Amino acid sequence: MLKTLRNAWRIEELRKKILFTLLIVLLYRLGNSVPVPYVNTDLLANYFEQMQNTVLGLLNVMSGGAFSQATIFALSIQPYINASIIIQLLAIAIPALERLQKDEGEDGKKKLESITRYSTVAIGLLQGFAYYMLMKNYAIIQSDYASSIWAAIVIILTFTSGSAIIMWMGEQITEFGIGNGISIILFASIVARIPNSIVTTVRNVGSGELQWWAAVLMLIGILAIIVLIVIVNDAERRIPVQYSKRVVGRKMYGGQSTHLPMKVNMSGVLPIIFAQSIAAIPATICAFVTKWKDSWLMTHVFDTNTWVYALIYFLLIIFFSYFYATIQFNPIEVSNNLKKNGGYIPGYRPGKPTSEFLQRVLNKITLFGAIYLGIVAIVPIFVSMFSNIGTKTGFSFGGTSIIIVVGVALETVRALEAQMLMRNYKGFLN
């Protein structure tokens, strides 16, 4: 990884892309330090200390601590993620959106992106209003402005504008920087909390609140998860493909053997991100309504430290894994392309038998990848149910954030390598 970064830095164009990406990330982190007006940040910090193990604490982790400080970027990328989920699900159910996605090419893609942007602003308004009501119900708004309509408008519009700016930042990174912009911003948010977590761990080990062996075991567990993530991310099923010989004029083409790679974790970190956003919606609503705070649903179902929440989270990860696998890999389309180019899978006739075989393979490897993602994501939940090691170390985000951080890092390195290969490739004449 370090070698890749060093080599990329030597290429002027890539160096500009890297610097641009770092500049956007810096601006994002600066925005996370600017609080919205009319909010008592001390009372808000005390409230979030009590809500650390709830879904609000999870949202705070995903925002890099901005959610608990009510900064202009407090909503982070959640509105954009929720909007993307809604539009992609609607594209399956609504024929007009499906045509935009599949049949209208680049123009259709741009129209879908525009719809997603407007949806992001709308969801940002709803989430901004919900966050304002949360702070108002718990008397976190400064007393002089608690009933002020102007204060409500300013706070809600500031949150909404912040989410729109983050969306724009992500798009700029994708276009002019390195890697996927939204993933980079999410990566920066999670990584920003690591120094505080390390300081908390060292301080608690020094004071005796946390046993040194527990900290060592946690470190070994994190390293083991990272190794597992790297292995599975690179794992793929290679299906042999044989091309038949064709005679065109006096020349013979084809006859070579190759393979069709199918990645085990085809969707990357997207199922984790989307499942997390969907699982958080009910608990978020409950937390924002005061009378529902101590309800049975909040304490026994949607609290992040319950087995019911873990089960819902696990099932959502499996669903989104299959959802994105079917979007990214179409067995019928792959089968038709093989048939057109004179290729076939040994033992299977071209056409329907080939597509059915590819579908079976896709289902099997997607199931394995989905179960892997689900287990890594929910194991820390069960650990926190029986111990408070997450609170004493500050690493309360668990396996979900580790998957996101490692996955985004690997994807960014691959993007860099692809850019370097494109600029350094030498043909056979050189």
Mean of residue pLDDT values: 79
CATH second-level architecture of the largest domain: Orthogonal Bundle
Strand order of the largest sheet: 4-1-5
Q: Which residues form runs of ≥5 with pLDDT under 50?
A: 425-430
Rounded to the nearest angstrom, the radius of gyration is 24 Å
CATH topology of the largest domain: Preprotein translocase SecY subunit
Helix content: over 70%
Structural features, described:
The chain has 430 residues and is mostly helical. The protein folds into 2 domains: 222 residues, SecY subunit domain (Preprotein translocase SecY subunit, Orthogonal Bundle), CATH 1.10.3370.10; 189 residues, Orthogonal Bundle (Preprotein translocase SecY subunit), CATH 1.10.3370. The radius of gyration is 24 Å and the shape is globular. A 3-stranded antiparallel β-sheet has the order 4-1-5. Strands 2-3 form a two-stranded antiparallel sheet. Helix 11 packs across helix 18. Strand 2 and strand 3 form a beta hairpin. Helix content is 70%, strand content 5%.
Which tags fit this structure?
430 residues, mainly alpha, Preprotein translocase SecY subunit, 2 domains, three-stranded antiparallel beta sheet, two-stranded antiparallel sheet, 5 strands, 70% helix
Task: Describe the SSE topology.
Elements: H1 2-9, H2 12-31, H3 41-50, H4 55-62, H5 78-93, H6 95-102, H7 105-137, H8 149-176, H9 181-191, H10 194-207, H11 212-234, E1 236-243, E2 246-248, E3 251-253, E4 257-263, H12 270-288, H13 296-300, H14 307-328, H15 331-340, E5 343-344, H16 352-386, H17 389-393, H18 398-424
Antiparallel strand pairs: 1-4, 1-5, 2-3
